Amino acid sequence: MGAYLVRRLAQGILVLLAVSFICFVIFQYMGDPAGALAGRYATPKQLELVRKKLGLDKPFYVQYLIFLKNALHGNFGMSFVSRLPAMQVIIERLPATLELSLMAMLLAIGLGVSLGVLVSIAPDSLVSRLIMAGSLIGISIPTFLTGILLIMVFAVDLRVLPPFGRGEVVRIFGSWRSGLLTWDGLKHLILPAITLSSYQLAVLLRLTRAGMMEVLGEDYIKTAWAKGLPQRAVLFKHALRNALIPVVTVIGLQFGELIAFSIVTETVFQWPGMGNLLLSAIYESDQPVIVSYITFVSLIILGLNLLVDVLYVFINPKIRYV
Fold first, then answer.
1. In terms of pTM, does the model score above 0.85?
2. In whole angstroms, what is the distance from residue 24 CA to residue 61 CA?
3. Which of 9, 23, 41, 97 matches a 20 to 30 Å C-alpha distance to 261?
4. Which CATH superfamily is domain 94-315 in?
C-alpha cells in the first residue's frame, strides 16, 4: 500500500504540472488582461506600464517558471482585479461551495442508493417504473432549467423558500463562515442543493440498480435467502456491499465535479461560491485566479480519487495494492 501511495502522489504531481502548463498555454490566446485593467481608453504607453507591472511583458516560459517557483512557496500570485493573493480569494469562497456540494452529494447518495436498492427488489412494479422514469427526467433536464423551475414553484408561486443568495451565516473559525448553523442559511441552501444533486442522484440510482440486480442473481445471495436471513441483512450486508465499488468510484468523481463545476447552479442562485468567482475571473481575464482555481480543484479531485482507491480495500478485502 505504501509503494502504491507514493506512485499515486508522484502521478498527482505530474498531473498538476500538466494542468498548470496547459492553463498557461490557453491564457496566451484569451485576450490581454492589461486592456481590461487599464480601461477601454488606455493609451499604448499605459497598457505597456500595466503589462510591466503585472509581469506580462516577460516571455511565456519565464512567466510559467516564476509561477512554479512561487507556487512551491504557497504563493500563486496576486489577483489582477482585487490585488489580493489569488489563493486567498479562492479560500474565502471555499466554505460556500463546499457546503453546497456536500449537501448535494449527501442528498444524492442517500436517495440515489436507497431508491436504487428499492427498485432492484421489484424492477417490474409500478413504483419502480415511476422511479426509473423520474431518474430519466433528472438526467435529461439541464441543471439551469431545474433551478429556474424550482425558483418559479417554491420561491415565486408558493413563496416558501428564498430564490437566491446564501442567507445568514455565522463565523465558525478564522474566515470560515457557515450557513448550516442558522435557519435562514438552511432555507437558502435547499433549492440550490436539490438542483445540484438532481443529475448525480439519477446517475447513482441507475448505477446502484444495475449493480444490485447483477449481484442479486449470484449463488451466494440465493444461499443467504435459503438460510432464512432477514431481508435487510441480505440486501445491505451481502448484496449492496458487493455492488458498491462502481458506486463509490462514481461518488468520488461526482463530488470532485460538484466542487469544481457548480458554476451553473451558483450563477442561477447567485450563490457566493468558487464557481461564481471563476466566472467573474474569466470575464475579467484574471489569470492568477483562474490558474489558482484550476490547480486547487485539480488537487481536490486527485485527493478524492486517491481516497476512493483506499476505500476499495475496506469495501472488498480481496483488493490489494502492490
1. no
2. 9
3. 9
4. MetI-like (1.10.3720.10)
